[in-house]
Amino acid sequence: MHASLPTSTILIVDDTPQNLTVLGELLKPYYHVRAANSGERTLRAAVTEPRPDLILLDVMMPDMDGHEVLRRLRSDARTREIPVIFVTAMVATEDEEHGLELGAVDYITKPFNPSIVLARVRTQLELKQARDRLAAQNDWLEREVERRMHENRLIQDLSVRALACLAEARDNETGQHIVRTQIYVELLAKALLTHERFQKALAGPKLGMIVKAAPLHDIGKVGIPDAILLKPGKLSAEEFEIMKTHTTIGSEAIGRAMAQALTGADPALAEVADSAFAFLQVAQDIALGHQEKWDGSGYPAGSAGDAIPVAARLMALADVFDALMSRRVYKPPMTLDEATAIILEGRGKHFDPAVVDAFVAQREQFAEIAARFADPA
């Protein structure tokens, strides 16, 4: 007894009405059956609802034979996955091999043996349903993996932002400083993406890591005493030396986090750990090097030129521009022209010349960001 798959639709194709009648009467008790009597009608029927789950395709037809119909079905993304059983009176082995090479899943020979037809149809429909279930599961898994990755990225971003806000909460600056400088860094990085001196440092996921790590540039300020950090006036030489240690405090804190994470780390998570450590290394570069200067007169190490990590060079200009354009208890905000003049004065001294050039090319965008995310009056 043949157990049907009642929701399945079968398209039978033959230019001989008698053959369509025989196959139709055999299959209709078990399946929804549609029919076509030419190649062109087959191609139209294959993309018309209800879409066929299986096609029984006659090989020998005028105008367009079954082989050409199958080629076209396989070349169309909409019909590529529909299984096709060739129906033929030909018995030559080479004909069968040719059809299978084109992508047919089986052969049924004329005259029809009802039991064989029903058995092969059911087998191919069960295989298709299994493939469809597997494809649906794979789609679900891909969506779930993407959802989890998005969730993890969001958690990472929020964690970074929370740490950055913790540092800013102890300073005279506001959370908008984090937002502005992060966008400035992104503008500079994208402008320099194809620059020969910056391509390697910004390739692949590196640019995104730099942008995400930018808010952690002043994380080391949590270790600076309030009397110095919150002092409204100019710092003394001794106080400034202490203030300068925020770079090493931040770098060392990130370094300790990486070292502790390595202790007892699960080897199975090595790939994830590598990605996380790459991000933290970028954050460490920014925290340690964003006060370095192109001519070597910065701190803490007095590094110069390309010895300063790219991420730190981008952050250096973004941080200074934001400070110049922002109101502080000890100074009013500068105009865009005033801030630009100081940045240009620092070209080749404080800042990498290429970074300054990238800033100049996008000066109006910088001004727009400064206005859009301005601190409350």
TrEMBL record:
UniProt keyword annotation of Phosphoprotein present: yes
Annotated ranges, domain Response regulatory: 9-125
Keywords for this protein: Phosphoprotein
InterPro entries attached to this UniProt entry: CheY-like_superfamily (IPR011006), Cyclic_di-GMP/3'3'-cGAMP_PDE (IPR052020), HD/PDEase_dom (IPR003607), HD_GYP_dom (IPR037522), Sig_transdc_resp-reg_receiver (IPR001789)
Presence of the UniProt keyword Phosphoprotein in the record: yes
CDD domains the record matches: HDc, REC_PA4781-like
Residue stretches making up the HD-GYP domain: 152-375
One Pfam family this sequence matches: HD_5
Modified residues (4-aspartylphosphate): 58
Protein name (database record): Two-component system response regulator
Lineage: Bacteria, Pseudomonadati, Pseudomonadota, Betaproteobacteria, Burkholderiales
